[in-house]
Known about the structure:
The protein is an alpha+beta fold. The chain has four helices and five strands, in the order βββαααββα.
Amino acid sequence: MNEYPKIRNHYGFPIEIHPDGRRVWPPSFKRFVREQIETGVLTVEQVTKECHVSKSLVYKWRYDVAHGPIAQSPLIPAPEESPMFAEVVLGAEVVPSVPLPDAAEKILLRGQTVDLTLPANYPVADLIRLVRALER
């Protein structure tokens, strides 16, 4: 009787293979592949042959490492760090110092447990930090 998940090694990384044939590629493997391709040690074609995957999947791994939630490695610059928590102090009465813009001029962020409405002119750099903090 076969035991699942099976483990297969690619470039020294253990890759789980489930009964339906689906393979689980760990983030560390994806970072390794991107680094090896970026430094010229491997080509996309070599990775596709070794791992039996399509070129588009290898390109997706590279994109995910560069732009996605996969933790960054020393070869790939880390995103700017920002605090995870921010203190919010509410008084007895909350009165905005400036009038809120019309609905068409607002940014609405919806998460699983929180909804945030921000003015349309909210600084982009701060918005990026806020979204990254909420994703964590």
